[in-house]
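Would you be willing to look carefully at the protein I have copied below?

:::
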Amino acid sequence: MYDQAEALRNLIRNNERLRTGRGTRILTVTSGKGGVGKSNFSLNFALALQKLGKTVLVFDADIGMANLDVLMGHNATYSIYHLLKQDKTIWDIIQLGPQGLHFVAGGSGMNELLQLSDAQLNKFIDQLDNLQGKYDYLLFDTGAGLSKEAASLIAAAHETIVVTTPEPTAITDAYALMKMVRSFGHEPTFRLVVNRAMDAREGQQTADKIAMAARKFMGIEVPLLGIIADDPNVSRAVRQQTPFTIAYPASDATKGIQSIARAYLDMPALREATSGGIKGFLHKMVRLMK
């Protein structure tokens, strides 16, 4: 039977012919608190990367508050849970969203990893390792704040985008999240996105505050990836359950996302994607969770 899993395999085989042979990069998107637009950023950033010719698979890893499928008006059939508990393959659980975006819906799957037997865990790792080289980016949309699962994802990934807004509480929480991850002995690579800025000046001032504190108290650089305007079209798109880059392609928020995607691709990689690949990332993530 020619089902979705087979269709995905054929589509990815075609994509592989267009790839340059570079390794698959693991990217996490996080925030210090909820309500800053993290998941909306993840979805539209992935679409912007795809528009620039990159292949992206988005994982909704926000345990308990998974909503990527809702943002795109998609009723997901399977999630990570079905891979762990119902004998589905990775190809079965990858869903197709708007403009053919590949995504894995959220749920309770990530926090079930600690309850798996060694055999089940190895099967899970082997299934995700099938993605190695099939995508340019695996993007994990983590939960807001610092759960053990989110910290493990951040520490194991090649880099992390921290989304904040100019609100004082969002700034404080974004800095606290980075500091707490590093206090566990991890040294992740952070990049910053300022969302819902009134103008470029406010966005830059927000980024400068976080960068200054990170430099002074943690001894690290947190480069600004970009600024997204406070745009009413974003909330309109959420109500329409359509990504704003699709619903309002000429909006200020869409221009901001597109600029961020281009800047991200132009930035030099600070951690190589070839070290251990997806399997190495997963082993490290699970080890940190325990």
